[in-house]
Write a structure and sequence with these properties.
The complex is a heterodimer of chains A (about 300) and B (about 260). Chain A is globular, with a radius of gyration of 20 Å. Chain A contains 13 helices and 8 strands. Chain A is about 35% helix and about 15% strand. By secondary structure, chain A is α/β, with parallel strands linked by helices. Chain B has about 260 residues and is an alpha/beta fold. Chain B has a 6-stranded parallel β-sheet with strand order 3-2-1-4-5-6, with helices on both faces. In chain B, helix 2 runs antiparallel to helix 11 (about 230-240) and helix 4 (about 95-115) runs antiparallel to helix 5 (about 120-125). The chains are: A alpha/beta (about 300), B alpha/beta (about 260).
Chain lengths: ~300, ~260
Amino acid sequence: TTPGSSEPVTRRAGEEHLQPEPVRPRQPAVQVVGRVHQAEVNHDDTAPMTAMMSECHLDQQLQLVTADTSEKTDPTLYPGKYRVIKGIISPVGDAYRKKGLIPAHHRVIMAELATKNSHWVEVDTWESLQKEWVETVKVLRPGRKRKWAEQNQNSSPKKPQAFKPTGVPRVKLLCGADLLESFSVPNLWKIEDITQIVANYGLICITRAGSDAQKFIYESDVLWRYQSNIHLVDEWITNDISSTKIRRALRRGQSIRYLVPDLVQEYIEKHDLYSSESEDRNVGVILAPLQRNIAEAKHNSSMA
Amino acid sequence: MKNRIPVVLLACGSFNPITHMHLRLFEVARDHLHQTGMYQVVEGIISPVNDSYGKKDLVASHHRVAMARLALQTSDWIRVDPWESEQAQWTETVKVLRHHHSELLKSSAQMEDSRKTPSASADSCNLPGIHPCSAVLPELKLLCGADVLKTFHTPNLWKDEHIQEIVEKFGLVCVSRGGHDPKGYILDSPILRQFQHNIHLAREPIQNEISATYVRKALGQGQSVKYLLPDAVIAYIRDHGLYSSDSPWKGKGNAS
């Protein structure tokens, strides 16, 4: 669609694969996450550090893959620069209006059930509680970071820290290659938001080995400029557990056992969350970012 | 209720360690057989291979059995059977099938006996999904991935007469994902072609390449395998120091 077009943007059933799907819209149950919280350490800190290990949430299934982003595997020889101290899942609000998006309170509960046994990954409900859709960059904002930083200081560490993180922890956006590539979907992102995200925060992008993420970065001036702030992590375990496929399996009465945490599977079953009816939610409705950005573009062009 | 043929699925393998992918095989196979309308899967059995199989990095079978047991704690239809691992030496797959088949015969005979005493019959004919005290013996089928089907073509790995017995007398349920061509493997083999009606090809649409090899490597490097295996199995591995290299930072890796 082009700005100014009066046709609503709808995604016809079965055509989901034709457009690069942004990570956030792709899974109604849980926001793909993440704001990975990390601490920057002074260069003169001589304490040995663990390499940055980021456990990444992919889709609502929270299938985690460890990614060692330092090139070497023995951290005592080649200490990494970061220590990940927190992982945050931020489910999108209902006002996002994605097709098939079920009410936020269910998605929040499922995320909480899934992270129950994690010492460092947790769910943040702020975004899900907002009445209007909130841009990603606003979710990353400093006010929120301070809250997370305080939480971290108050909680007693489960293991003694080998070093003291200095400075305010940095927040980075954790995503899959599809979110990265969604930057090029017309009207989905504001260019200033993308710039802010990669310039002021940073991206950690889990990609299937051999994916086009590097090419995508090369072809984008903004991403290229801030490429040092974009960490591409190879995922060696091909993991195709998409929420779309999970919902499809559920509609067909097929088992999703061992693809999602047991507690999540039980919750889905108990509340009969996904059906053809739930999949039809928001059909014919414009996705919130598209609506907002197209409207603003119209407004701006009429002002010019 | 229409009379479906009861089926027991048997999976042989190293399970070194057991992962969610192994467990998925059972779920996918069961869905597939139920979809045909002809079968009712009543039980799943995991049979870890004997230590003397000689595969590299194979940890002691009692550990592999214990881990499988932990993984199956929450399953109401799959269980682990240590018989194969307890034999004095490595046992061919066909012999494991024969053993479990005779076990099914035995318990079926016991059911028959208890039918004669009406008071006991209600409890003893308790296999889920089977009409109480049904005289139908469950069919025992070998459950495997497409990669195993491919190994039937490896020279000297399998005896031809064993392959035939497996597909003729028992049956195969083969779960495949991308990268394999199970139909091709079947057509390339005269024996498999002849009994292809007894080979069920189930497709796993959700690619999930959790290989135990990768898991062992990740563990050896202190990397996280959380969400690839059940938490209870990860805890067991940590408690017993399995799959670790002697890296100096062993144990300081990311807590799960």
